[in-house]
Write the structure tokens for this entry.
Amino acid sequence: MLDLGSEIRKLEKNGIDMLHFDVMDGIFVNNITFGLPVLEQVRKASGITLDVHLMIKEPAKYIKRFAEAGADMISFHVESESNALETLKAIRECGVKPAIAIRPATPAEAVFDLLPYLDMVLVMTVEPGFGGQSFIPETVDKIRAVRSRITGLGLNVNVEVDGGINGETSAIVRKAGANVLVSGSFLFHADDMAAAAKALKEDKIC
Ligand code: ZN
């Protein structure tokens, strides 16, 4: 049987700071992934930061349950059907850090009014739904626009990127203002995960 605790300790030893959970409902995106039971098991097995990314149609309905299951941060999509401001407030009321996610085709301005109410903006650098996709270069301008607005407002908000992040794209997104990098394939297919994680964190601007 899989020993989640020791698997997660291995990740931490390799320089992984948090686990990013993609939750899909098969409606908002055309794929279905694990949900609450897996999150609960991981929470029981480890104290690592759990970053939950809800790619679901009505996130507001599920905030409390994901908070109770052990999420430290919850992001949901500005394109979802829930009221964004109310959902952000509901997340914070549960003692969880609120974040908003934005798809590649949605302009940066869609999240500007929400910035004072959140801890993190998740800029999708691929279309949400499947792992292993290539980075969309046009999203770099959006990272820059979001970071510049945050700085202009004097806020302390993280900018996270998700999709196609590897040793090359990491330098590009960091230069544009991202400071939380999600990576799947690049880390898990690497011969040396610790070296791959280090490459994502280093300021190697190409
Ligand atoms: Zn994600």
Notes: Helices lie at 4-13, 36-45, 63-68, 84-93, 139-153, 169-176, 185-188, 193-201. The two ends are 43 Å apart (CA to CA). Residues 58 and 82 are 5 Å apart (CA to CA). The domain at 4-202 is CATH 3.20.20.70 (TIM Barrel).
